[in-house]
Write a structure and sequence with these properties.
heterodimer, A: 107 residues, mainly alpha, two-stranded antiparallel sheet, 4 helices, 2 strands, globular, B: 227 residues, 8 helices
């Protein structure tokens, strides 16, 4: 049996917002592609999207996109994750803190 | 003059700790996971400990010095508990965290009452208890150092090396204080000054890491300037 790491709702929201933000330039966001990236069942993905719309973090006019509140949440979320990683609070392989600055302390 | 300098040093240390509480609270603020509360609580206790030392300089009292040592030790106990529970969340980790947090608070309250009652009834608990508390603090700092170094080895990124270094300096500070407690004459030499330098270096590293995480512009490829 695979030892999958349990994710709480905030982590899933953060991951989903990150993916939607990365796909911001796409004309249309394909939900099945998002589902593969975020690794949750399709019905739950739709629930999460509904919850994020209710919270005012994303909007669904022509395509799914982050609201200003959603962008602000994502910025804060990434900062806190970065801080937690620096503090040694999260285990597991994650993306680099700075792509161009492996030490993270260079100006 | 020396008292003024000592007072200023303790107040500055307390201020740094309270500034760090604000940053350390953010992981809990975002995730609402109780296991991340140990860091803000720990730094708050560290700040209270330094504040007690500062008050103790103005109004010398044996109780304050020992209570300061107690709060400082439990600051590291809270931090070590958070690092212990910050591993992959298990099925009962929330319940275990709540039980552990409760037990630490009960132990802290019991020791504080024992100390104050001891002073009231003229019992001298000071020597054995202070040695025990200092050793417990060193043990907790060592655990945190090992944990964060293991984390650094796992991620193999330079940025994660600073926090074990910060805790290492706090450990050096505690160790120097043990030397100072054992040989007061050595104070005039290096131990006391070394402890202060190590303490400020450690706290400075934490402030720098917090600043880099929350205020430094990262310029990630996916990040766009807001309209």
């Amino acid at each position: 049996m695979k030892n999958l790491q349990r994710r709480d709702r905030v982590k899933i929201y953060g991951d989903l917002l990150s993916i939607l933000n990365a796909e911001a330039n796409s004309e249309k966001i394909v939900l099945t592609k998002v589902q593969v990236q975020i690794n949750v069942p399709f019905d739950r993905l739709k629930n999460y999207i509904s919850e994020l719309i209710e919270l005012g973090l994303i909007e669904n006019e022509y395509s799914l996109k982050l609201t200003e509140k959603g962008k602000q949440f994502l910025r804060e979320y990434e900062k806190v994750l970065d801080f937690m990683k620096r503090m040694g609070l999260i285990y597991g392989k994650q993306k680099k803190i700075h792509e161009n600055d492996p030490t993270g302390l260079c100006p | 003059m020396s008292e003024v300098v000592d007072f200023a040093i303790e107040v500055a240390s307390a201020a740094l700790c309270f500034v760090l509480v604000k940053f350390m609270f953010k992981p809990y603020g975002l995730t609402r996971e109780g296991r991340y509360l140990g860091l803000p609580v720990g730094f708050a206790f560290l700040g209270i400990s330094e504040a007690m030392l500062a008050i103790g300089i103005l109004q010398p009292a044996g109780e304050l010095r020992l209570l300061s040592l107690l709060t400082r030790t439990f600051a590291y106990v809270f931090m070590a508990a958070t690092y212990y529970f910050s591993r992959d969340p298990a099925k009962n980790s929330r319940l275990l965290w709540s039980i552990t947090f409760g037990l630490i608070v009960v132990a802290l309250a019991t020791l504080a009452v024992m100390m104050l009652r001891g002073f009231q009834f003229g019992l001298n608990l000071n020597p054995s208890l202070s040695v025990f508390l200092r050793l417990l603090a060193l043990f907790c700092i060592s655990y945190i150092c090992v944990h964060t170094i293991r984390k650094h080895v796992q991620t193999s990124e330079g940025a994660t090396l600073w926090i074990p270094l910060g805790f290492f300096f706090l450990g050096i500070s505690q160790y120097s204080m043990i030397i100072w407690a054992g040989d007061a004459n050595f104070v005039q030499g290096y131990a006391f000054v070394g402890a202060l330098v190590a303490r400020f270096t450690g706290l400075g590293i934490f402030i720098a890491v917090s600043y880099l995480s929350f205020y430094k512009r990262k310029g990630r490829p996916d990040e766009k300037p807001s309209a």
